[in-house]
From TrEMBL:
<feature type="domain" description="Cyclic nucleotide-binding">
    <location>
        <begin position="1"/>
        <end position="72"/>
    </location>
</feature>
<dbReference type="InterPro" id="IPR000595">
    <property type="entry name" value="cNMP-bd_dom"/>
</dbReference>
<dbReference type="InterPro" id="IPR018490">
    <property type="entry name" value="cNMP-bd_dom_sf"/>
</dbReference>
<protein>
    <recommendedName>
        <fullName>Cyclic nucleotide-binding domain-containing protein</fullName>
    </recommendedName>
</protein>
<dbReference type="InterPro" id="IPR014710">
    <property type="entry name" value="RmlC-like_jellyroll"/>
</dbReference>
């Protein structure tokens, strides 16, 4: 544990910050200690979509990190995030010295994957259910609207900007949010 603490660095991000851009090789694994990190994808027209929003107590070590190849995605700390980082070389050394650490990392990442699958199942529901569930599970986005613009959030929820605003307003009026 002492080795890992020596190798990890942490930083608080009061503002939005792009850690890695599309095409960069992700050289560090991340542990989201507090707040959120967003994964952004781009289509052939360079239109941006929020692919994933990863919260507290999560490990991010995707394909770019594990294969040490250019990333198809951009990784962004949202305002208020505190993220710990460990280099690829250090992480390999941790796994060699502490085999159980690799299994623990796999379990944490599997949990993130399961949460994403649940979110995808939710997207087939009506817009009110999608918006309500998002804000119940991510209250910080309501309390701090500057975390992510509606235009981006809509790409994550797969609804239009006007639908998001109308449904959110309706939920406020009904006292549900």
């Amino acid at each position: 544990m002492e080795f890992l603490l020596k190798e990890m660095t942490g930083k608080y991000y009061p503002d939005r910050y792009s850690m890695y851009h599309q095409g960069d090789t992700v050289r560090e694994a991340f542990y989201v200690s507090d707040g959120y990190v967003a994964c952004l994808g781009f289509d052939e027209f360079d239109d941006k979509q929020v692919i994933s929003i990863i919260g507290k107590d999560s490990i991010i070590a995707g394909k770019s990190f594990t294969a040490q190849e250019p990333s198809a995605y951009e990784w962004v700390c949202l305002p208020g995030a505190y993220v710990m980082r460990v280099s690829y070389v250090s992480m390999k050394e941790v796994y060699e010295k502490f085999p159980d650490a690799e299994e623990l990392a796999r379990l944490v990442m599997a949990d993130i994957s399961d949460k994403e699958l649940e979110r995808l199942k939710l997207l087939k529901r009506d817009a009110e259910t999608v918006v309500y569930t998002f804000y119940v599970n991510h209250r910080e986005f309501l309390d701090n609207p500057g975390m992510m613009a509606d235009k981006e959030l809509c790409t994550y929820l797969l609804i239009s900007e006007s639908t998001l605003r109308n449904v959110r307003q309706k939920l406020f009026k009904e006292g549900k949010l």
